[in-house]
Amino acid sequence: SSVELGEHLEKDFGIKIAGGQGDLKHKIVRIAHLGNFDLLDVFSVLASIELCLLKMGAEIKPGAGLQAAMAEATKK
After folding, report:
1. What is the pTM for the complete model shown?
2. Is the pLDDT of residue 19 over 90?
3. What integer best gives the mean pLDDT of the chain?
4. CA pseudo-torsion sign 57, 14, 22, 69
5. What is the distance between the alpha carbons of residues 18 and 6, in angstroms, rounded to a whole number?
6. Which of 8, 28, 39, 75 has the smallest count of CB within 10 Å of its CB?
């Protein structure tokens, strides 16, 4: 669940997330940040999410989210 994911992210990496609101409730998570949030932050948060999901037993391909973000970041 997003609650469990949030607990792992905060405990393991100091990252805070929140659930979606309104129509997006239980569909998305929002990454908490203060001020500037650059590409390196995006990459590190995505990698942290993947690590936590794997720890939680999710069947995901390690690095897939990070790879997709890098592909988007390098598009011209």
Report:
1. 0.82
2. no
3. 89
4. negative
5. 7
6. 75
